[in-house]
Amino acid sequence: MDFVPLRITTVKAEKSLTFDLYIFFKDQYLCYSSKGNILSEEKLEKLIKQDVADFFIPFDQVDNVTIFLDKALKEATYAEGLGTEERLDVVEGVAATSIEHMSENPNEANFNMTKNAATGLREVIRRNPHALKRLFGKKGHESDLIIKHSLNVCALATRLAEHLKLPEDEIEDLATAALIHDIGITKLSIEDVPLFEKDKDDFSPDERLRYGQHTNSSAKILSEKPFISKRVENLILNHEEDLRGTGPQKLTKLTPSEECLSLCNAFDKRLISTNQKPSEIYKSFQVDYIGRYNLELIQRFELVLKEEGLLE
After folding, report:
1. Given the DSSP bridges, would you call strands 28-33 and 54-58 parallel, antiparallel or unpaired?
2. Collapsing DSSP states into helix, strand and coil, what is residue 41?
3. Which helix (H) or strand (E) holds 247?
4. Does the structure show a pLDDT above 80 at 234?
5. Mean per-residue pLDDT over the chain, rounded
6. Considering the domain boundaries, does residue 208 fall inside one?
7. CATH code for position 159
8. Average pLDDT, integer, range 78-106
9. How far apart are CA 301 and CA 140, in angstroms?
10. Per-residue pLDDT tens digits for 131-142
11. Any domain includes 180
12. Under 8 Å CB-to-CB from 72, ≥6 apart: which residues?
């Protein structure tokens, strides 16, 4: 039997399940709860404390999961009476699930799930003051570092694009591309994956070349898919480029949305490599990246960071 992952944070206690839930334990899938059952708050909290990040769903029940996730996302985005943390938990869970599904099976249904998750994340941040600051402050599992990075970049890049008043269709594509821009990291060799946590300014020439391959891998996974626009594909392909031509593609011109994605990607990677807060690294980042991006974009970026409380 084949299985697909489902983030545990998307499953709510005291609600009837519309699919079977499995956990992966000692190299095998074990049925944790069957369709129609209700999970208690105590059971869910116990799994979370045990650092269980994913449930697993039988592949033949994926349609039920898609319907479930769409409903959970709408509730988290628009329902009244929910706290910001609860909304973020669900949206993060749906986004993480969509990233994992796109990495394993980049079909139209999973791509649409990614688009919906990106829209949900934008709406939660727009409707809830300081949600973006809380998103950056949330601690994730070490194994989820790429997913956490993708969520941060998606949230920050779209806020920056909104600040620049880019067309809505461009911002939608930017949000979607940001969530899945690094799915090619998993295609790197085991020896090269740790480069993700290293500041690219510290790369040797050989490391820079090897790490840069993930941009082509990410774009290749999505290429020639009729449901993915060329703009989304180019955003993903060019997310490591800058105006000095130091990226894998050696570009010196970027579209406004490509520049937004690249800048926010570089900023969050600096946070990862230094393990510091945005307020602690911004000045050095600003100095290092003047000339790599338009000065006006860097100035707007600083305004966004201030407005969202990330430079306090």
Report:
1. unpaired
2. helix
3. none
4. yes
5. 92
6. yes
7. 1.10.3210.10
8. 91
9. 24
10. 999 999 887 665
11. yes
12. 10, 12, 90, 93, 94
